[in-house]
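Example 3.2
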Amino acid sequence: MDKWGEQLEQMLQMCVVLVPVQEDDDDKAGFWSQAVYSLSDLFNLYRTVVLRSPEEIPVCDKQNGGVVSVSQPPSKELRHARLTYMLAAFALRAIRSIQVLIEMDAFRRRGSKEALKVCTRIEIVKLVLKVFLRMRMPFSFYVDEVAIEDAEPPKLLEQRNAALLGKRDQQTSSEATPSEATAQTAYVGRRTGRSLKALEAQSSNGDVEQQPTAAPPARVAAGLREDRSPITSQIVLAEVLYHSRPLLHLAMLRRRGRKSWAAWLVAVLLDRISAGLLAQELRPNSGTRAAALETAEVRRRQNQVWWALLRSPMFDKLLRRPSETLDWILKKIPVINMFNIVELALVLQPFYFSTSGS
């Protein structure tokens, strides 16, 4: 998985844009293209779980303020909390990977109204999983796994752990040779896996001296509860608005239809207000892992507001005609017409989960 995982993931992502979108009734919604994308997303999710160590799961021990000694094994309660968190997080992201496929199937069999009912049921299941994860987290608000992955790319897990291990070995072993010390601090490329020697600087007397570098911070869950932002009534309000937005949006779509401007405006306002309220109350200890994860979650929610441009009726009013023109131009260019990026986006846009951002 460590050696070939990224190459396999890139190959699956390339297959997404190479699978043709059929014009007949069997695949008029790009079902197989979406199936390949879901497979790629599930593979990336599995790869993230494999590369993550238990100590990095954002779950703290309730005893001793959440601080666990490295020399002592984790308690039974902490191991159970980590396991349940990992299973719930995996289930949530797995549902996100296949939710468009489920909506497609419901739309093809029973129509648009039944598809929105299925979407509502899926959002309820996702909300239950989010509440469960929130109860396991040491943060004052829900931090999604997508934000954690953005702040801490899974490919860098082993690189940082190896750097920490090399730093500890260098401090404890005074008999290490310069070549061994250089090998311990070597940089490993994210894509190629090649090792590059650490930079060295010449001292004034001509001897080779290695520049002192600080070891990367330990990516463990201990201390997240102490470094987090304090919980306030404004954070609670922001959470209620944020997590209720998908259900309110779906309820209005079922009553008013997918072309409703009122449903579009309500979704935009709830996303914007909740993200703004949360950003105002973000006060973690600077320079800590808690600060990095909370900032990544706020940034993720703020970026979700831009999904509104891809939802109907705004997309139909503003972007549909330019997108169709761009797709027509790309189909006339050799080689480039093999990639169906714009075409796939156009056939997936009418579906709720393709633009929901939830």
